[in-house]
Molecular chaperone DnaK (Cerasicoccus arenae), 941 residues
Amino acid sequence: MAARYSIGIDLGTSNCALAYVDTTAASPSTQLLNVPQYEALGQWREDPVLPSFCYFLTDDEARELHPDGAVEGELAGWSHTRVVGQWAREMASLSPERVAYSAKSWLCHRGVDRESKLLPWQSTVLPVDRKLSPVDVSAAYLSYLRVVWDRQMAGKDKTARFDRQDIVITVPASFDADAQRLTLEAAERAGYPASTRLLEEPQAAFYAWLERHPGASELATAFPQLNERPELVLVCDIGGGTSDFSLFEVTASEGDEHPSIRRLAVSEHILLGGDNLDLALAKMVEPQLADGGTLSTSAWAQLLSQCRTLKEWVLADPAPDPAKLLRVSVTDGGSSLFASARSAEVSQGELLTLMLDGFFPECPVDARPAQERTGLRELGLPYAQDSAITRHLAGFLRGRRVDALLFNGGTVASSLLRERLCAQAAVWQDNAEPGMLANDEPHLAVARGAAFYRFSERQAAGLTITGGSGHAIYLEIQGAAPKKRRGKTKRKDAPVRSGVCILPQGAEIEAPVRLVEPEIQLMVDRPVRFQAWTSPSRPEDTVGEVVDLDDDAFHRLPALTTLALLPPNVEKPEGGKLAVHLIAELNNLGLLQLVCESVRRVGDRQRRWSLEFNLREKLNGDEPIEETPAEDTGAATEDLQAAQAQIGQCFGLQSNSEPQSEPARLIKQLEDVLRLKRKDWNTALLRELWEPLGESITRRDRSTEHELAWLMAAGFCLRPGYGHPLDRYRMQRLWFLHELGLAHDRDKAIREQLFILWRRTAGGLDRDQQAALYHTWRERIYDDAKQAYEPLRMAGALEWLPSEDRMELANHCLKLILERADKYCDHAIWALGRLLTRTPLYAGEGAILPVSAVTQAFDQLARLSWRDSLAGLKTTFTQAARRLDNRDHDLDEALRGRIVAKLTESGAKEDQLRRVTTFVPIEEKDRQQLFGESLPVGLHW
């Protein structure tokens, strides 16, 4: 049965909204769903806007709202312990550690595990099991809208149930494939049907305008030059968390009632919007409230909420008075609420200057976003490095003419900001001011447009927007020169990467694109990796075209990986390589699907293998990992082959005529064969040596010497478990060791070497694997005997463990140090440093323990002498107190001062003190210290 309703949902950073079209109505048009929601404890209101905030109730609040433990009508949120909407937004300033928000921004943050329980960010009042992942928070909003719909629109009419309708969820045009997948995952968790579609927000905003202006006369008024030439429309969508720009071409179609509309380009993902204005204003006011210092977390949240309100007041005023003063007040602890209240004033003129000069400054047409970090960074999110939206817009347009502007998003609801952007666009094109397409509902247009899009698509009538993929996709290749070069010329000494276009910009939905030339050779029976790149600004590139990949026009995606396994009875191709065609296709959800298809029959048929995005690839900071080329081992080919054969001989089946191997001397023998000392083995070489070790994982049981040698070599070759192509697959093979167990598990040396191996490779284990290690060896980890030395070090390296487990480990280390102050406790000191560090090796900011953990440890250890047997505490607290210039993780100045004084008294080195007192970028020696030994040469982070 055909769906009765077309539903559009704006899943926004700041607000959500739902619009719908009743296809059975006499005159179908978009309508808005009024969403009931709490505005205070026990008080309801209805509003078409659902603020994107999720409040975690206290036990008393939960009992008051739901005395019987049930959720009446399921309208209190995702569960009886949480509330979404208006009240949750109000509580963001009163109980910030109980409110999750900006989930949409977290969905596209590639530097964290977006399915881990991160939110509310840095909360110390909620246990980890009560927190939610960004996917789950997004699902909470979507689930709430579904329940409201079924309650208000369906009732007993099963045909009107939400899961039987055509549903479209909007996402930023710049969302990459990973963020799109996670959005669909959130929809699935919220009970949405499998047919749910995604639509880019700028397109939805344009569709909303088209619904309001359907007549030919209105189009002619909006586009006066349409009969003479195509006109370009820039949709400028600036919301709470992101800025999105999309360029559309409107062309008159001879003989057709409606013109054709094609999307030409979309901007890169820009994590920059109204939230950044709030942060900037709060930063400006904070020194007045904190006597030049910084506010507490609670007071900062209050200030941020008030600054959001001030910004909205000023932007809503069509004629703001620059001299008018605005007041903010916060409370910052103390026994008396009134005694601790602090106030400050800021003029509307100061606020306007901050917004216009800081975020919408005038700039030339050839301006580009600054690469150094000038933007604000709070809440753990990697906001745009340049806070000037106008420079981002200039970089997107690159001199292209714009005939009309359509503004969308709450930030540009202000006429002042719209006029500033229109005037800037006019300057860029010789004072030819573009027209402004009316949008009187910038906070609701996206939901309306999504519903109208789905309705128009079903009706197969009216105006539709074509354009397909907003990005071109490329694969990095070797040995092929570009057919033509565009843009600026590279320096002679700059590395040149070549890429082949596999999906052109503008590729249509469900239209497979086959890459025949250049031919791709796929390695079979072992994991392979392709480096993918994307560009939103190269509509002229065609399938198979080879181009230079530069960092200005192209951006690295997570790796594409596959494992091409052939059946055992199929003859392997010569050299282990198979010629394949690559087939790229956008499905009807707008997600990229890539398939390798054998050119010729293999066995009884042609074979196909899908390429998957490597979502496990760890990213350090905001940029993807740079890899060393796999063939750059630093060793001669014949030496490498001989070394691999040496490993195979050591663990393989040997005949009586072959010389017997000496496993204890394996590493020394490899040094001799490779003619390289082990300290000079780079990452690529180590991973090549791992291959025969991986194949020997079940053949290490020949003797205790063989198993000990295998564990030592495996840990050495795979450390630190990530940082090189296909390490994820290598770690999957290594994990068999945990499942198989040790062959000689009663041998103490072998058990210790097992713990060392897992410590060395911990960064390549996922969350579940680390938890399995922790719980399997928990008894040994917490044993006070000498046999617990290596288990405790291993546990300290498990950065993916829940914070409560890591806090328990930190307390155990603290206890050992206090009890053994005059004895050996280096293992506890080292593990404590890993647990308290402000700069985790691989798990990102989510692994940083709260400042209170550092305070507790320092208060108990400060009375001891940090010399002799406890000298390692200087390194521990250099890591624990390291200055990041990040409010979420930096110590307060009083505690920092105490630690600096203790470090100075203990004879700490100058560079240790410098890392605590000033911000110093992470260096290789910092990682070496955290890791506890040397890291492979050429490891890329």
Summary: DSSP finds 30 helices and 30 strands in the chain. The mean pLDDT is 83. The first strand starts at residue 5 and ends at 11. Residues 914 and 920 are 8 Å apart (CA to CA).
